[in-house]
Amino acid sequence: MKDLAVPLELSYTDRQPKAADVVIIGGGVMGMSAAWHLAERGVRRIVVVEQSELGSGSSAKPLGGVRANFSDEANIILGKRSLDFYGTFQENFGVDISLNRVGYLFLAHSDCEAECLAQSTQTQNALGVNSVLVTPDEAALINPYLDPASLTAASFSPQDGHASPAAVVAGLTRACLAKGVTIVNRTQVLDIDRQGDRITGVVTNRGHIATDRIVCAAGAWSGAIGDMAGVWMPVEPVRRMIGLTRQLENPHPTIPFTLDLSTTFYFHNYGNGLLLGISHMQEPGFCREFSYDWLAEFNDAASVYAPRLENPDLVGGWAGYYENTPDHNALIGAADLDGFYYITGFSGHGFLQAPAAGELLADIMLDRESFIDKEVFSAKRFGAKDRMFNEVNII
């Protein structure tokens, strides 16, 4: 696509417009997906404001899982549609996102977990996802690090895998710039103006932007953005850490992105090394300091389920935020406050759902029919407990 030759450096501007049709708060993969889908549908005067550097939050991490392997129908649909989008990303956006379809492998260690995976696989197949339930021995053939004696079953989805979030943000940014979207970096939202029950503007450290529509795509900071507008955004930042092993002269065998339902430990290839971690819970808060205090818990799990990974030869890692909601699933929708929209709270599976999430939000904002029920990810579900998600395939 010829118009995608716009240099990414042009996204850096200190010139904040005085007015916009839509202001998107957050310049990560969610904000850029929303911006692109709105611009693609003809919306003009879109402004994206990012408090740091574009894509410098979770979207800056070099590897992110992409999958449709969920248990809930809505998550499966969102994941599959996004996976299809990533599958043609280089063709449509001119950027190689290092999409590697090594598959996803979820592990079960009890009859109950095996039954959950069996039900999830059946639901996925009914929605067009190519996934299968495999035996412990078959799982160990797919991933030779596993001890089959510790498993009762596993589910394998071969079309899933991982890609580069930073490359996706770069591709969407170029496409947005080509469509006239304004992106303002190093710009912090200080307040949101409202008159009665409607949005009237956004105040940043650079001044005021008059607008009647804003999108909260602020990830871990979404609760604070909601507070400015008097809108409840049930999102908590939680630190999560991963480790990187030494890069070897002879690479590890190619394995799927492997996740354990019981212990929440996970691992996959990272160059000639491995990326690994365990999703133990930290106290909510804005701490992004990396440490190795998760390693003992990881080793306990690995000693049983993947003994060769116990005491891994780590050379570093990183800490980032999960943006958790009460049921650990996304918030996509419109608030009761006229003009306030949100796309946040993905609780660890945002990158893999970003393309379809941005499309859904654009359909909501423009009052168009969409590929899914437009209320399914609404924050209003927390007022009706029977509408909350019971997603199994997340850690």
UniProtKB/TrEMBL annotation:
Coiled-coil stretches: none
GO cellular component: cytoplasm
Record-annotated FAD dependent oxidoreductase domain positions: 21-363
MF terms in GO: oxidoreductase activity
Keyword terms, alphabetized: Oxidoreductase
Pfam families: DAO
Protein name: Sarcosine oxidase subunit beta
